[in-house]
Every structure is written in C-alpha cells, then in structure tokens.
Amino acid sequence: MIASANPLFGKGLQKIFIERWGKQAVVVGLTSSMAETLAAMESLQPDLVIVDYDDKILNRAEFLNHFMAGDRPMQVMLVSLRGGGAAVVYDRQALTPSEAEDWLNLPNIAHAPAEKQIPPRRNEMRRFVFLGILVILLSILVYAGLVNARILPVEASLQAVPIDWFFHFHFAAIAFLFSLIFVFMVYSMIAFRRRPGETGDGRHISGNTRLELTWTIIPLITVLAVATIGAQNLAETRQIDPQAMVVNVTGGQWFWSFEYPGTGVTSSTLYLPVNKQILFRLTSKDVIHSFWVPEFRIKQDALPGANLVRELRLTPDQTGKFKVRCAEMCGVSHAYMESLVVVVSQTEFSAWLQQQQAAASKDPVARGQVLATVNGCLSCHSTDGTIKIGPSFKGLYGSQVILSDGSTRTADENYIKTSIIDPRFQIVKGFESKANVMPTDFGKKLNDQQIQDLVEFIRSLR
Question: Which CATH number is 2-105 given?
Fold first, then answer.
C-alpha cells in the first residue's frame, strides 16, 4: 500500500514497483489522507506500507500508535522524493523503543529542507502580550460604546443604584468576552491562514488538559460570583423602612388606580414624595398585570384575588414626571395601560393630598372622577372625545345617541344610570362587538349616591 497526497508520488511509485516485481507483489491501495490511510491499514492489511515522508498530512505520532497497536506482521518504509538517499524501514514485530523515538524525531531523509520550527517561548509570550493589549483596548472601546448608547433610562430611585451597577458589570463582561473572541479570531485568520502553494493540513493537536480545565473552572467561578452579587443586590433593593408610606395599587383592563390609605384619596395619577420609601401593595381586578416604572428599575406582578396581594418597596430619589407601565401582556390594550407618576417634594405632596381630600369630600364631580378611575371606567371611555373600547364621556350628557336597533335616545340622567347598571340593555350603534367588555355588576358594587356621582362627573364633561 502507498500513502501520499501527492498523486505523482503514488502513481510513479506504483509504476516502478510493478515494473520491478511484476506479479510477485500487488499494490493493494493508494491513500491520500490520514483517515484513509488508517482505515486502509485495517481493511486491506498490507504487508508493506510505503509512506511519502514529505507529506505533512500524515501525522507521525498517530501513525506510529496505529502501527504499533496491531499484531499482524507489517513493515513501513519512509521515502523522501525531495531528499533522495536511502529509505528507512521499520518492522512492526521488531520495532524497539529507540527506533520509535527515532521515528518521531527523525529529521528529513538525506538533505531535505528542515521542517518549520515552532517559535521559541519568548516569541510566543510576545505574541500573547500583544494580543492581550489589543483585547484590553477593544474591551474599553466596546464598554464605552455600551455606556454612551444610553441603554438604561434615568436612574430615579435608590433601588436603581445597585441594579445599574450590576448592569455595568454585565456591560464590562460582554465587552471583554466579545473582544477576547474577536481579537483572537481575526488574528488567527491573518497569522495562520493558508499561504499560496500550501496544500497540506495544519498541525495536528489532540487535546490540551490544562486549557480544558481552565475554561471549565473560570466560567464556574464567574457564574458563582454573579449569583452572589445578584443575591446581594436583591437583598439591598428589599430593605425595609418601618416608616414607609403605603400606597394601594389596583390594576385592571386597562387602567391603574392608586389609593392612599387613611386619607380617602384615590387617583389615576401616582403622586409620590421624594426621598421616602413607598410600600406598594398591589392587586388586580381581572388578569395578571405587572407594575413597572422603568426609571425605578424594579417591578412586581399584580395578581387577582384578595389573598394574593403582592408588595414592592421603592424610594424615589429624583423629582420629575415618569410613567408606570404594565410589563405583563394583559389583553388588547396592554400597550396603552399607562399612568403618570409625579415625584414631588414632601411639602408639595402634602399640599396635593390636602387638596384632593377637600375636593373629594365636597364636590360630587370629584367623587365621580375618583369612582370612574378606581373602577376602570376611564380605561374604556375617554374624557377628550377619543374613541376607545366604548363611547367617549365628553359631550355625552344631553346628546342624541343612536342605538344598535336604529332607535334614538337622549343621553339624560336616566339613560346614563341604566347604562351603568345594565350595559347590555342600550348598546350604542358601532359598539356591538365590544358590548361584553363592560362589567354588569356595578348595580351591586355601587350605591345610589355613587352612581349619581358618576352621572355628575359625566355631565361635567361638556
């Protein structure tokens, strides 16, 4: 059998072999790769394997291991076309340890050019230092790009501080890993590319235990460190202030309402004093919602059911206007389930609270607005003429309403009260497909005075 990736070597040697020995010997095969050579040695079981010594695709150590592992008589002949001179023959059954060592360390036969030497350790160190500097520089640039891209919104709560620190830790890790992979990949593509005229395979590497242990232990330590930091951040964001102010939050399709216990005040806008911890107690009227102000970072689900009240603690540390959003897909108007959040000084908050208490106790319109907010009326009916799930409240009182059966009604006090108590009785034309959205139990949940307050609120929206 003849093993060489060079077809001239194989065909030429086969021709010479046949001319010299004729029918006394047979060339059972020609192989051109390492895998093909090893497979043919097993399947063809030749007595002699002639190997092109100049062929770099035949790995010496792998070939030697396979050659020595067999017990059938076999010989190997190493022949060099470039070097000329005598061939070297090894016998499997008589191969000594010194011959095996000579095989692995054998220089090119006769005067063949020497193999390319592995760079000395000093050059390897210089290469890694150079690549390390490139990785560090690129990591700094990528991290600066992530930070300046303003991925995170304004930091407006004490709880946002450790969370943003953790975000920046992740940004640094992302920048380093990206740079590590990118730099070594590009360098390898340039430095170890196949040059013109090269046809052989690269250097054969069977494994590196030290490297495998390194890339197992380092990620394990990293994961444990990140988990520890995450647990510490979670504990820091959940610290309890016994003097925290309580706000009851109710989510519904598709509105938020905020009640300030002990004050009688409920609003659709969340007013908060700055630099004071707020204990939010969250619940839902229908499906799962999620209370989230991006500038405050942390969020919490609001679940339906009196026994499933969830708690969330936040300390706003920056005045301004923000938005509370629902972070849980909750229906067709999920994207519009927003409410304004206003963070003011303690003095301004106290003044607002007193103003709301005074208005709610005396003015039926103010009381009606609170009822409309708490019961989710304003999530389906606008106050500015915009058409939502149901008709707008603006200009409704006293107008002529066309019903689904074609008849016309005047939207007086009786019409509005009937629509609140029995919303299926008088369906407005054009809203037939959405008639089932409005609850039918307001007649049981609200007393006569509350229904009258709602009528007065709608009457005010001229």
Answer: 3.40.50
H or E element, residue 289: strand 289-292
**Beta-carbon count within 10 A of 108 CB:** 15
Q: What is the DSSP secondary structure assignment for residue 423, as one 8-state letter?
A: T
User: What's domain 364-460's superfamily in CATH?
Assistant: Cytochrome c-like domain (1.10.760.10)
Tokens matching residue 24: 């006394």
Evaluate whether 288 touches 330 at the Cβ level (below 8 Å). yes
Residue 374 in tokens: 């708490």
Residue reference for tokens 């076309």: 81
- What pLDDT is attached to residue 114? 42
The rounded distance, in Å, linking the Cα atoms of 368 and 453 is 4
Q: Cα(266)–Cα(256) distance, rounded to whole angstroms?
A: 11
| Class of the domain covering 245-361 | mainly beta
Q: How far is residue 329's CA from residue 342's CA, in Å, rounded to a whole number? A: 25
Q: Which residues contact 179 (CB under 8 A, 6 or more apart)?
A: 134, 135, 136, 138, 139, 142
Picking from 110, 106, 104, 113, the residue whose alpha carbon sits closest to that of residue 84 is 110
Q: Domain spans of the chain? A: 2-105, 122-193+211-237, 245-361, 364-460
pLDDT of residue 108: 45
* Paired tokens of 455: 């009528």
Centroid of chain to Cα 371:
42
| Mean pLDDT per 10-residue segment, the chain (462 residues) | 76 75 72 79 80 72 74 77 65 69 55 46 79 94 91 91 92 94 92 78 74 90 92 88 92 90 87 94 93 93 90 93 93 89 93 81 78 80 86 89 88 88 87 81 81 88 84
E strand residue ranges, 20-171: 30-31, 48-52, 75-79, 88-91
